[in-house]
Amino acid sequence: MKAPKAPDPYDTAQAQAGMNRDTAITQGQMNMIDTVNPWGSTIYDQTGENTFTDSQGNVVTTPKYTQTTNLSPSQQAIFDRTQAAEQNLAQIAQDQSGFLTDYLKGGIDLSGVPGLQSSYGPGYNPNFNGNLGLQTDAGLQTSVGPGYATSYAGADDFSADRQRYEDALWDRTAGDRSAQEAQMRTTLANKGIKEGSAAWNAEMERMQRQNTDARMATIMAGGQEQQRMVDMSRQAAMFGNDSILGRFGAENAAQLAGAQFGNDALAQQGMFGMGAQQAQNAAVAGQAGFNNAARQQGVAEQFAQRNQPLNEITALLSGSQVSNPAQMSAATPQTGVANTNIAGMIQQDYQNRLGASQGAMGGLFGLGGSLLGAAGNAGGFGALFSDERLKTDVQRVGTTDGGVPVYTYRYIWGGPVMMGVMAQDVPEAAIQDESGFLKVDYSRVN
């Protein structure tokens, strides 16, 4: 059985292009809906044809349409009057622009405008002397003098006093400790606990720890007493220094007050003179600013007179611009028509016919392991489809005497397991079918 011929891609493309044009023309005709409303109407007419030559040299013809908008009588009257008014404005602008030829040749005349004042002129004093002769040295006292304490008792002072305090506390409780020890010994003896026994030694150690704790408490009390004496010494030194600093500050405050009083008097006198000079400078500067403002106003008036004719011409031209009449009809409805996929349909038809042909040929090739035996039959099955692109489930199972690999496989369209070679492995025995796939002449396979 002969495989079907593959479709020509150019014929397929032309068929698809034709379908696309038919769809576009259909869409255009469906969208060109005549509309009529109180403002006017919009009409579509076919007025000819458009032709062009496609990429294959074929002359293609498509319809040509014209859209015509007609205004209602009342809207047409308004449009005509508006056009007439704009034409009048354009004529006035044309006539008025004639005088601009000579007008623009002349420059702006600033002869009557006040000149620019670039300095304040006489009477302005930019170098006012601000030195008021102020007193900068008040004779202040910079040293606190003798009697100012720079140190006080430290943590190591009053050690002897602390020791006496500790000894007094310890001696005060010595009698109580002796009585407690004698009472403990009597109690242990009465209980039959002998001196030197474990129970005896345990009670003595406990009493010794109590005595040690009492001793530590006495030492801590002595340290607190020493700290108290150090704090008292420090407070005494600070009290003396505060007194000296207070006297030192009072003397300096008196000196500063005297100097400040004299400086205030000089400053008042200097500020009075400065204020008079500043007032004079302000008056001079104000006059200069007024003169320059008058010049600026005069220049602005000259430019306004110069620009007025130009502004009038611009306004006239703006009002006489040609404009298209507004679209009086509603928006044209848009209808969509899907393209026909003729190329896909052609390709699918080919695939269907190719599958049917290959399915029939697959039945002929179902010779199993005996396929190799047909190699010598050049007139029968000597040329079979062996293109690896048509095979699936490929497994190598051996080699021919000439070293060509042998495989088992299935064709991609189904069927039983087959055995043979791949056309790509034996180019000397490969034959290209008109479908584009390769066959093998097994009589030439070694």
Structure described in brief:
Helices cover about 50% and strands about 15% of the residues. With about 450 residues, it is an alpha+beta fold.
List the keywords.
alpha+beta, 7 helices, flat, 446 residues, Peptidase S74 domain-containing protein, three-stranded antiparallel β-sheet
In words, what does this structure look like?
Helix content is 51%, strand content 14%. The longest helix is centred in the middle third of the chain and has 122 residues, at 198-319. A three-stranded antiparallel β-sheet has the order 1-2-3. Among the domains are: 159-319, no CATH class; 365-444, no CATH class. It is α+β, with helices and mostly antiparallel strands. The chain has helices at 9-31, 73-97, 100-103, 159-172, 174-190, 198-319, 342-364; strands at 35-37, 40-53, 59-71, 383-385, 391-399, 405-411, 414-420, 430-432, 438-441. The chain is built from seven helices and nine strands, in the order αβββααααααββββββ. Helix 2 crosses helix 6 (198-319) and helix 4 (159-172) crosses helix 6.
Overall 3D shape: flat
Radius of gyration: 63 Å
Q: End-to-end distance, in Å?
A: 27 Å
Quantity of strands, as a count = 9
* Major beta sheet summary: 3 strands, antiparallel
User: Structural class of the secondary structure composition?
Assistant: alpha+beta
Helix count, DSSP H or I runs of 4 or more residues: 7
Mean pLDDT over the residues: 80
Q: In what order do the strands lie side by side in the largest sheet?
A: 1-2-3
Sheet-strand content, in percent, reads 5-15%
> Percent of residues in helical segments?
40-55%
Low-confidence stretches: 360-383
| H-E order | HEEEHHHHHHEEEEEE
